[in-house]
Amino acid sequence: MVNRTDQARNTVYDGVEIGGVRSLDGVIAHEMTHGSLRAHFGLLADGRYPGTLVEGYCDYVAGGGSLSDAQALNLIAHSQHHPALPYWVGRQQITMALAKPGATLDQVFASQAKF
Question: From 36, 69, 91, 99, which residue has the greatest number of CB atoms within 10 Å?
Answer without folding.
Answer: 91
